Amino acid sequence: MSQTKRAWKLQEFVAHGSTVNCVALSKKSGRVIVTGGEDRKVNLWIVGKPNCLMSLCGHTTPVESVRFGHEEEMVVAGSMSGALKVWDLEQAKIMRTLTGHTSSIKSLDFHPYGDYCTSGSLDCNVKLWDIRKKGCIYTYRGHKNGVNCVRFSPDGKWIASAGEDGLVKIWDITAGKILTDLTYHNGPVNIVEYHPNELLLASGSSDRTVKFWDLENFNMVSTTDGDSTPVRNILFHPEGTCLFSGTKDLLKVYSWEPSKCYDSIPVNWGEVADIAIGQNQLIGTSFSQTNVSTFVVDLKRVQPFGGIPHQEGGSNFSSKNIDEVFTDLSISNSSVSEGLKHSRNKFITERPPTQSSRQASVPKEDIEEPTQDKEDQDNDSFEIANPEDYRQIFRPKSRLSHSPTRQIEPFQPPPEDGMFPTKHVSSPRNVNRQISSDRKGSSERKSATPFRKSQSSKSVSDDGDMEPVRQPAPTRSNKTSKPVNKPPSKPVVKPSPRQPEEDKSGISPEDFLPQKAGGNDGYSSYGRVPSENETLSTLFSGHDAMARVLAHRSKNLQIVRAMWTSGNTKTAVDSAISMKDPSVIVDLLNVLNLKSGLWSLDLCSCLLPQVQDLMDSKYDSYVTAACEALKIMLRNFGPVIKSNLTAPPSQGVDLSREERYRKCRQCYENLCNIRSKVASRGGTPGKLGQLLREIQILMASLD
């Protein structure tokens, strides 16, 4: 029933004309979304509404990262070329175009006081920008791989950066130097967040853990148990009571002293892109291809704020047990509030009293002039698609509030969730019996009022079969009925007359049942019901062949693993290559991509021919693994290969140098062959296309 629903999908809409690359939610209200895509546009949306609020144009390459200002008055967007653009949403104009990065922007953040922003890029650098006057004023160097996330501390004095190299670095803005490296993650760090009040930092990684760091002594406070998938997003509750962690199709709630998982909420959002909190609800957003989806989690039904923790087995509680549960919940909530009263120091978040004092605290060594030429400025445009909503959210005449002036109400669960009881279908026999009863009783339901569906023309009925939403079968008197016109701007599908002989969804339970011998319609509701043996034989056709393939693959991986654990990586790689199984090579590459320190020139010379073969694969996952490995090889060994090939010949006999030259020559020849394949697939959309374009840029260093 909708009264007990803890999480639900709010909407899904087409955000761009091509692939969406990034999505961000406003942190103040949680009701505005900004998206960036391959079409080089930055679009703004109101959560819960399908129409674009405004569109910001001007970037000449795909947009890779977006971020709202703290008061929702500004938006910054970074592109694949390394350029940043900052828009003033109140004045409806672009404020600044900033250049300096040499590769794609991966993360952005605004200073708490609004006059600065920071960016992290694939060029391994973190930059601090003055968005009012001076452009780039400092560059922080130290990461060995791309920077995935950057965040300002609540007092604006530090920057935390998380990298593909598995490191979290804390930078002192006033001193212009690094304070410390936090090094306990075993994989790329995807996200970092500061506690809103205390000297505490949280980091989420592809090693499937969230770690908490004390910023007084820079020690690790605690770590969570490993999840089943990488941690993509984290967010502290505004009051600092707990931390929310978003992984694939799952939201978890953690405390850190002691480390404890309060609750686990299944949310079908895939790879979550961003989360925000407003009106006692957590809003999450994700994207796939050209679509963006939003999801809602009711925090009043989530621990430690209320409700009953998620039970995997779905246990039933007696009235006595329920009383005991809520007694435990009250004790738990009180312990949370007591736990917050520990002695850890807090950030001093008062804004400096004058402009001059803030400017004086920033290092001057790396000052660059702002870069915005007339050509770029002419290309910039600001299209307001919905003036009424724009005035309600971004009021140009007042800076006191940038949220909608109307009272913001929490999002309600979809009404159809509790409209019909759910019937369990236990077997194909029950499916056919139910289909028969539906068709037989269709004339009895002529007067029934169909329910509306807001997002799709298909609905799962209470009988368990998927069918389009339609009205009951028409009578002859309905022939002159007027057609219903549906507005083009709303994705609401009006009911249409029911025609049993035509199924617009293209899906029917009969499609999944064995075909009747000598018949065209298979097993219909009026024909013979298939036996369980016949149904199972159809469902399991091909199962034995697939099981043999998976068993063979598992056996090969066990052999490679045995050699790997013995300490001889090169032997394990040679063994995997000799098996001539692309899936084993892909599994091996995925491991090496997570452990970039294991790569050597020997491994490059062995694996480049395999990478070359994988580039021709019809599976995107194979090509992606090959591209990730190729990017690591070019970044780490590209300069080595070029320097060895261009170095003058040595005098005398140097066997090690000759062996190194031979390997570099072999790598160079393979890279030249791969280069043509990368160029031929340069127009590929999405993340794979981005990887291919990055590889093209890295290969240019070999010329």
Structure summarized in a few sentences:
With 703 residues, the chain is an alpha+beta fold.
Q: Describe the main β-sheet briefly.
A: 5 strands, antiparallel
The helical percent reads 25-40%
Shape: globular
Poorly predicted runs: 311-341, 354-361, 367-376, 396-405, 417-507, 516-526
The count of helical stretches stands at 13
Total count of strands: 31
Rg from Cα: 29 Å
Distance between the termini: 64 Å
The residue-averaged pLDDT reads 75
Relative strand content: 25-35%
Q: Order of strands side by side in the largest beta sheet?
A: 2-3-4-5-29
Q: What structural class results from the helix and strand content?
A: alpha+beta
Jot down its keywords.
four-stranded antiparallel β-sheet, alpha+beta, 703 residues, five-stranded antiparallel β-sheet
Describe the secondary-structure layout.
Elements: E1 7-14, E2 20-25, E3 32-37, E4 42-46, E5 52-57, E6 63-68, E7 74-79, E8 84-88, E9 93-98, E10 105-110, E11 116-121, E12 125-130, E13 135-141, E14 147-152, E15 158-163, E16 168-172, E17 177-182, E18 189-194, E19 200-205, E20 210-214, E21 219-223, E22 233-236, E23 243-247, E24 250-256, E25 259-266, E26 274-278, E27 281-288, E28 291-298, H1 319-339, H2 355-360, H3 374-379, E29 381-384, H4 387-393, H5 428-440, E30 458-460, E31 466-468, H6 532-539, H7 543-565, H8 569-578, H9 582-594, H10 601-614, H11 620-646, H12 655-680, H13 686-699
Antiparallel strand pairs: 1-28, 2-3, 3-4, 4-5, 5-29, 6-7, 7-8, 8-9, 10-11, 11-12, 12-13, 14-15, 15-16, 16-17, 18-19, 19-20, 20-21, 22-23, 23-24, 24-25, 26-27, 27-28, 30-31
Helix pairs in contact: 7-8, 8-10, 9-11, 10-11, 10-12, 11-12, 11-13, 12-13
